Amino acid sequence: MRAFLPIALLALAGCTSDSTFGGFLPGGEPDRLAIAEIESAEAEESGEVLRLALGRRRASAVLIQQQGTRRMWRAPGGVVVATDGARVVGTAGLPQMVMATRFDGPDPLTDPRALLTRTAETRRLVDVSGASRDPASMRFGLSFDCRLRAAETEDGYILVEERCRVPGLSPVVNRFWAERESGAVGYAEQWIGPGIGPLALDFQPAE
């Protein structure tokens, strides 16, 4: 079983003092993505950038750590996203947080082009928490049983759709758009916790 435990996300999310910002979520938690949106102009000029969107909020996160296909991105205000390839495997500083993702076997998303000729199934376990990190808001070992299908779009991309069954939750649908020639995912929309909309990620360099 392949595991990724983004423990450092929680520490990074706590590096910014909440008292210096005015944006808050219900319950008194700081609206970190709103903070990131305001301060992202500086991030656009400081290296490799991942653009994020959650609802109407937009922010830019810079690459702060990389080990193979695993990367950690940080936006101003303490929003941190960990990715393995194009897949989100950890988050911090958002209303819901993905604390850990553990894959049972290889991830079919590694080769989107192969999914044009076959469907694939995958299983992973995910730990989540509310922004307050209250033990009552934590859920461990959410089981995702997923099927991935792909099709070519009219504009020449590969659209991979992943549908997952998760006990106790509504069905989860993730979408990934990959380049036909390279198979690299340039854009994605992914589940990042119960009760929150999908997180959109734009991996493509700004023009």
UniProtKB/TrEMBL annotation:
<protein>
    <submittedName>
        <fullName>YjbF family lipoprotein</fullName>
    </submittedName>
</protein>
<dbReference type="InterPro" id="IPR021308">
    <property type="entry name" value="GfcB"/>
</dbReference>
<dbReference type="Pfam" id="PF11102">
    <property type="entry name" value="YjbF"/>
</dbReference>
<dbReference type="InterPro" id="IPR023373">
    <property type="entry name" value="YmcC_sf"/>
</dbReference>
<keyword id="KW-0449">Lipoprotein</keyword>
